[in-house]
Amino acid sequence: QKEVEQDPGPLSVPEGAIVSLNCTYSNSAFQYFMWYRQYSRKGPELLMYTYSSGNKEDGRFTAQVDKSSKYISLFIRDSQPSDSATYLCAMSAGSGTYKYIFGTGTRLKVLA
Amino acid sequence: DAGVIQSPRHEVTEMGQEVTLRCKPISGHDYLFWYRQTMMRGLELLIYFNNNVPIDDSGMPEDRFSAKMPNASFSTLKIQPSEPRDSAVYFCASSPTGSLSGANVLTFGAGSRLTVL
């Protein structure tokens, strides 16, 4: 079993839809949770960052962490064609630990 | 800032040849990471450096892989000899220390796409 599991998709939604992307993990030591967005032929770029449990909102994006279930989510409201990309979750055990474990990514396509 | 710069962007080589990938991190970033990305395994950490010193190379798959960081502005990842299963996109990323309350924000380069025939 991988430490971080992520559905590869692809996920196709119409423009304006709410998108839910998810990752599960097995290591209870993870404290830092991140979402990266990767456009085709580009490097990943940080989208959202959350420490421990709870929610964090940034514009159309909301990140949720449920440590009791070892489950994290990224919600995209009012999805746009420009949101079409691969979304990677990443997590780390925390301060002093610089090894991030990435999910394999979920490919999202938002149809105009 | 030009960001993390990687070269070459694309490399096609034949099995058995030596491959050298290059990375220039963001100035002032004291951490440098090499990742490999494939469809099946996603992003895998190969090795990371702090202040030019290798800290963890446990992700380096075999002795055929080696990485160096001779100074704060340059790093190389070398594969010798290369094999078809090394075909992947290799990313370099850099980070300043503790950029997010104890975690690190990784800034990735655009990647080097390697194809070994």
Topology:
The complex is a heterodimer of chains A (112) and B (117).
Chain A: E1 4-6, E2 11-14, E3 19-25, E4 32-38, E5 45-51, E6 54-58, E7 61-66, E8 71-76, E9 85-92, E10 101-102, E11 106-111
Chain B: E1 5-7, E2 10-13, E3 19-24, E4 31-38, E5 42-50, E6 53-56, E7 65-71, E8 74-79, E9 88-95, E10 107-108, E11 112-116
C-alpha Rg of chain A (nearest Å): 13 Å
Overall radius of gyration of chain B = 14 Å
Shape of chain A: globular
Number of helices of chain B: 0
Structural class of chain B: mainly beta
| SS content category of chain A | mainly beta
Unreliably modeled segments of chain B: none
What can be said about the biggest beta sheet of chain A? 6 strands, mixed
H/E element sequence of chain B = EEEEEEEEEEE
Multimerization status: heterodimer
Our estimate of the beta-strand percent of chain B is over 45%
Most extensive protein-chain contact, per-chain counts:
A-B, 24 and 31 residues
What is the helix fraction of residues of chain B, given as a range?
under 10%
- Contiguous low-pLDDT stretches of chain A (5 residues minimum) are none
N/C terminus separation of chain A: 37 Å
Query: Mean pLDDT of chain A, rounded to whole units?
Result: 92
Give the tags.
heterodimer; A: 112 residues; mainly beta; six-stranded mixed sheet; globular; B: 117 residues; seven-stranded mixed sheet; four-stranded antiparallel sheet; 11 strands
Describe the overall structure.
The complex is a heterodimer of chains A (112) and B (117). Helix content of chain A is 0%, strand content 54%. By secondary structure, chain A is an all-beta fold. The radius of gyration of chain A is 13 Å and the shape is globular. The model of chain A has no long low-confidence stretch (mean pLDDT 92). Chain B is mostly beta strands. In chain B, 0% of the residues lie in helices and 53% in strands. Chain B has strands at residues 5-7, 10-13, 19-24, 31-38, 42-50, 53-56, 65-71, 74-79, 88-95, 107-108, 112-116. In chain B, strands 2, 4, 5, 6, 9, 10 and 11 form a 7-stranded mixed sheet that branches. In chain B, strand 7 (65-71) and strand 8 (74-79) form a beta hairpin. The radius of gyration of chain B is 14 Å and the shape is globular.
